[in-house]
Amino acid sequence: MAGILNVLRSRGQLTDRPARPGDPLVTRAATTLHSPEPGFLSLRKTSGQTITRGEHVGFIRPLTGAPVPLTAPVDGVVLRSAAEATVAEGDRVITVAATPG
After folding, report:
1. Per the record, which residues fall in region Disordered (predicted)?
2. Quick check: is 8 in a domain?
3. What is the CATH classification number for the domain harbouring 80?
């Protein structure tokens, strides 16, 4: 969204000043959390949000049995999260850019 607003500013369609960009994210590794079993996915974290190792980031509700909690594998920032409401075993649920810490 910020990029679109900056284009409008450069074309003179908006007259306010652009927001200063934040500090860049520096990472050397990304970690992916996969679904441990099939079911309905419910996430508490989405792209761009910060997470802490061990933090509860969501759960999978299988067709039978209790919900399966999903926990953050590392400290970092969520790069992408699954868009589907249902997942199969092994599907990518969240990809995290690990941050030093």
Report:
1. 1-43
2. no
3. 2.40.50.100
Does residue 47 lie in a domain region? yes
Beta bridge partners of 40: 61, 86
Q: Helix, strand, coil: what percent of the chain each, to 5?
A: 10, 35, 55
Number of domains the chain contains: 1
Q: Is the dihedral of CA 44, 50, 54, 55 positive or negative?
A: negative
Give domain status of residue 52, yes or no.
yes
Backbone φ and ψ for 26, nearest 5 degrees, come out as -110, 120
Percent of the chain clearing pLDDT 90 (strictly above): 57
Measured CA to CA in angstroms, residue 12 lies from 2, 19, 26, 66, 94 at distances of: 15, 16, 33, 56, 39
Q: What is the pLDDT of residue 101?
A: 63
Q: Judge contact between 57 and 44, C-beta under 8 A.
A: yes
pLDDT in tens, 14-51: 888 777 777 777 778 899 999 999 999 999 998 889 99
| CA–CA separation, 40 and 67 (whole Å) | 9
